[in-house]
Design a protein that fits this description.
2 copies of one chain form a homodimer. Chain A is mainly α. Chain A has 15 helices and 2 strands. In chain A, strand 1 and strand 2 form a beta hairpin. In chain A, helix 4 runs antiparallel to helix 6. Chains A and B meet through helix 2, helix 6, helix 7 and helix 8 of A and helix 2, helix 6, helix 7 and helix 8 of B.
């Protein structure tokens, strides 16, 4: 099965399980809307790809971790789009959750998706509970305080912010969780796999800044210029468009270099290069050069 | 050590651990504000009391569960107080989190407290990971979809609500998690302990409705009449003040009757009766009779 299809099936199972059995239907619909249709599902793909690169062909642990990580990513987008944050009317070309269902349901959908993520970890590791404390730690660290997504978001409310720390918390942390969790699922030394995720997360954030500064809103399915209008730290603003692209290319190479020794090194390298081309296509690179 | 003091120490450890190591200071302060000073800490006291009633004197599992459950309760209050929900300026006699720190930080504080709760479960059960999947399930069920706190809140946005289901999700679920988790920590058959929590949660919700309808705002530390002004399901409105008090007393007796056979039955009964008197003092009962 294609990785993307597997991940969508895992996510659909998780969401449908939360929806059924008589819960409030609007919240159920909002959770589904937050998760489907999805984006590139890069974090869960990365998680499962790392587990496979470490020699694990089909791992319930990697699948649970991948599901949880994508649910947490979706939850962060729902809260990020709220009126008091980005006030974004669109996400992936459709109304954002609060635009479609109202602010209350959007806040609750984010909350319920966070809970569901941790619930999936518990369910997925029933057969290997000895791995659960470490996996919980990896995932929680990526989204909570002091260095996860919530922390990254909260840095936007502080007067003094350092770009690196901010981006690391806001994006890098969940990428690092994806690679670490994939390695843990395969029984590998997962701390060695964090650097790859951190580098990739940084590359992803720079690409996002470039898109926000120079992307095509029709292709992105969301408005551009938001980071700029909100005065957020942005590598495109700090380094200029050309400098940001150079930084992006450097980070892609650093990611490839950060892959620890493993059986599936070649495939993982190919995945990273394909993903880099998807994030910033060659013609965009050429135009800025 | 007094149970309340133990619980406050556990919570302080959890919050301080999230605050330190360079996280954004405002979010750290908001999380602390959400958890301290506390209310009666009834849910974590109940969790540890059940573990003790089942013969467990000092259990890291019960302490982790108690901490997680109170953090989740505090998170739900922070989000519940937000402008789009209750728009409550006060909580426990102090400014609510959003009144003090703004809406963004309040949303993030709730999110980060949910994450911290699950993180505490992972940390607390490192020595007994085989109990972690069940404990994660108990706790997540109490706060997520389809029957936990998020679901209860979301029922307020539905046209058709049944009072019982609504109250069960909004309050009963976390009480049931507290008793079940306490029993699990002692190695008891935890499903048998859910009913006690459900009954107590229902009693607590009825007492809350009575306070909202007839309480003293100065003693409560928050405004009254909110449920009524928001047109929420309320047993005081449905049954009248006297009917609601009868229902409360009935639920307290049903709680005592629901305690499964255990070594500490007498102490647990005494705790429940003391708590009932705290919730609705004898003079209030007498005035309404």
């Amino acid at each position: 099965m294609e990785l993307l299809q597997l991940i969508d099936e895992l996510l659909m199972d998780a969401v449908v399980n939360a929806e059924i059995r008589g819960g409030p239907p609007t919240l159920g619909a909002a959770m589904r809307h937050a998760v489907f249709p999805g984006g590139a599902r890069i974090r869960p793909r990365l998680c499962i790809a790392v587990a496979m690169a470490c020699g694990e062909t089909r791992s319930a642990t990697a699948e649970a971790a991948a599901t949880a990580i994508e649910l947490l990513h979706c939850a962060s987008l729902v809260h990020d789009d709220l009126p008091c944050f980005d006030n974004a009317p669109l996400r992936r070309g459709l109304p954002s959750v609060h635009a479609q269902f109202g602010e209350r349901i959007a806040i609750l959908a984010g909350d319920a998706l966070i809970v569901l993520a941790f619930q999936m970890l518990g369910r997925g590791l029933v057969a290997v509970p000895e791995r659960l404390p470490a996996l919980l730690g990896i995932v929680a660290r990526a989204v909570g305080m002091p260095n996860g997504i919530c922390a990254g978001q909260a840095w936007e409310s502080e007067a003094q912010v350092r770009l690196g720390e901010y981006q690391c918390a806001k994006t890098g942390a969940l990428f690092a969780a994806a690679t670490a969790a994939g390695a843990l699922a395969a029984g590998a030394d997962y701390e060695r796999w964090r650097l790859l995720g951190e580098r990739l997360g940084e590359a992803y954030q720079v690409a996002d800044d470039v898109q926000d500064a120079a992307g095509d809103p029709a292709l992105l399915g969301k408005p551009i210029g938001i980071d700029q209008s909100l005065g957020r730290p942005s590598s495109a603003r700090e380094l200029g468009l050309r400098g940001a692209l150079e930084r992006f290319n450097h980070l892609v190479e650093a990611s490839v270099a950060a892959i620890p020794e493993c059986a599936g090194r070649a495939q993982l390298t190919a995945l990273i290069r394909a993903e880099a081309l998807r994030l910033i296509p060659a013609d965009v690179q050429a135009r800025a050069a």
